Task: structure prediction
Amino acid sequence: MTTITLEEIKEFLRHKPGYKKEGKKRLKRILNNRGYSCTKLKCAQALREVRQEDLIRPVGDNDSEANILFYDIETSYGLAKVWRPGYKLRVSYDDFLVQPKIICISYKYSNSDEIHSLTWDKYQCDKTMLELFINELNNATAICAHNGDRFDLPWIRSRALYHNLSMYPKYTSIDTLKIARRNFNFPSNRLDDIGDYLQLGRKIKTDMSLWDDVINGVKGALEKMVKYCNQDVLLQEKVYNKLSEMILPTVHVGTLKGNTKQTSPYNGSYDIELVKTTTTRAGTIKRLMKDNKTGKYFEMSNSNYKKFKDITNETE
Result:
């Protein structure tokens, strides 16, 4: 482990405001799981000295884009009693011998190049990993995964509930599988195939033997699993960024930064222009706008567009 200084712990707390509420024992464990060696005394001192006003929020005045958390999980398979192999066999819950768990979680923020990974512990328990990652979920502007709404997030919720861990009841979730199905017609909607179709890269090739090795504790297998999961997150971000060129935004960064609704939802800028005026079937006017900094499009109501014109006329 790498020894971490008091100032480094304080800097960690400033950038991870969700950990400020943790006690010294839990903060020490969190840092240990990240590969840092520290004492409870040093953690307690850092918690005392970092003031609430020193905390750096995920979205602030210096952020230009939404703080999207891209993530991916890998899970273990369950073990059950069965009499024979076959197709469409029924396996009773009572026949389950080992419940499936989360092996690892990889994640990165859209405003950072650093990729992080968490794994189950040496006893193959995923509780500490989930405690750490739930703090990340709670601090993110939005979270993004491929099929995350049906697979990744329900998995995390189920395991959190198993360990009596608290989670927010709802997150601003971006599911690129839903985006692909709703807005495009790719030959295949698998993340690997979309990445290849858009010439963004592919997932790392592997097979079930890797899961066998990780579950059986084969040396080096967990590191390979983490590398596989990391690549999924990197590809996920590339796919989202490409798809977002032709879809409407999910969050409005302008309002998160304290600006008005008449700013760009991508960065809170007034450097926007009207592209097209449309109406709904009921006759409601809609304005299709363009963010000149990103080149991306978004919709604005007619009332907000009029306010935007008033604001820009006042500043010109």
